[in-house]
Write a structure and sequence with these properties.
Layout lengths: L4 E4 L11 E4 L3 H10 L10 E6 L3 E9 L2 E5 L4 H13 L3 E2 L5 H4 L6 H12 L5 H6 L1 H7 L6 H7 L7 E6 L5 H9 L17 E7 L2 E7 L9 H14 L4 E6 L16 E6 L13 E2 L8 H12 L2 H5 L18
Parallel strand pairs: 1-6, 7-9, 7-10, 10-11, 11-12
Antiparallel strand pairs: 1-2, 2-5, 3-4, 4-5, 8-9
Length: about 325
């Protein structure tokens, strides 16, 4: 099983089912790897339900003599435990896998790369665009655009959205409203969110990594000061910054923000009065006002509708990642 490697082929913690590919250079190595993992023999072209390394029960499919897929439940804890168990059993993680090996059923390198991107894409908006890429490259092989490529890559790899602002103005309440569940602590005490809280959010079809940060205030404790330092590190990587305020506070300058990061100025708790400064949107979670508008505005900043609607092809793979992808 010396040549056997595994690779997570689906976004972690996003779907109900995860896909972990297991690959080898020859049939005997893959047989040996599946045996070490305690999986009953499975001929090429067959599929079955198996207990997987004592972690979960899931589906195992043998796509070909040299490739198989382990499909457990998609929760983050299950996926992490399985990946660690694979390493513990001597099967190492692959840095990358040629999509043509992972998808032997594909009719071309382009189709194989598209299927690999489709499996990894976090955002629902990516699906139709990716499925249409073989046709688009066939019709417009010279019409790709680097800027559009970079923007659309956010449909596969979720961009980072960071909400910053003063303490006790409703940032955590906003995060809970956007997530549709409690992901942040909410209280009347300033400094309740002492570290940043991250969650994956679906903003009108675009999945983002959303970080709700601790409020910045005078007289902050040492713990909060350290949390604010971590916030500045996040801002250096943020794709979109939500500058939050309300009727009694000022906007906080995003110190250390990445050049080119998009910014939306958001007035929170608008049911208590108008924002103290000019904002792009005034939101009231209590009344359910302008939350949908904030979702749409955030998506537009990250992946504009005009970019989504453009008919040209999309270079959705990384440079040098796949050899001969357009063959």
């Amino acid at each position: 099983m010396r040549s056997a490697r595994w690779k997570l082929q689906s976004p972690s913690g996003v779907g109900a089912v995860a896909v972990i590919g297991v690959f080898a250079s020859d049939e005997s190595d893959l047989d040996a790897a599946l045996g070490v993992l305690g999986l009953a023999p499975l001929p090429a072209g067959k599929i079955g339900v198996r207990q997987i390394l004592g972690v979960d029960e899931g589906v195992v499919a043998r796509w070909s003599e040299t490739s198989a897929a382990i499909m457990p439940h998609g929760g983050g804890a299950v996926v992490r435990a399985l990946c660690e168990a694979l390493k513990a059993h001597g099967v190492q993680e692959a840095e990358r896998v040629d999509p043509r090996a992972a998808y032997p059923e594909a009719s071309s390198g382009m189709e194989a790369a598209m299927l690999a991107a489709l499996a990894a894409a976090a955002s629902p908006l990516a699906v139709d665009l990716l499925l249409d890429q073989p046709r688009r490259w066939g019709l417009h092989p010279n019409d790709a655009d680097d800027g559009r490529d970079r923007i659309l890559k956010r449909l596969i790899e979720p961009p980072l959205v960071v909400a910053v602002g003063a303490s006790n103005i409703g940032k955590s309440t906003l995060a809970n409203a956007l997530a549709g569940r409690h992901v942040s602590l909410v209280a009347d005490e300033p400094g309740t969110t002492r570290d940043h809280v991250g969650v994956m959010l679906n903003l009108a079809g675009l999945v983002v990594r959303y970080v709700d940060t601790p409020g910045m205030r005078e007289g902050a404790s040492d713990v909060e000061v350290e949390a604010v330092r971590l916030v500045r590190e996040l801002l250096a990587h943020a794709d979109l910054i939500l500058l939050c305020t309300d009727g009694s506070t000022r906007l906080v300058a995003p110190t250390g923000a990445r050049p080119g990061a998009k910014v939306l100025r958001v007035g929170l708790r608008s049911d208590l009065g108008p924002p103290s400064e000019r904002v792009d949107l005034a939101v009231s979670v209590r009344r359910g006002e302008s939350i949908a508008e904030l979702v749409r505005a955030s998506r537009e900043q990250l992946v504009p509708a005009a970019v989504l609607a453009a008919p040209g092809p999309w270079r959705f793979w990384n440079e040098g990642e796949v050899e001969g992808v357009r063959s």
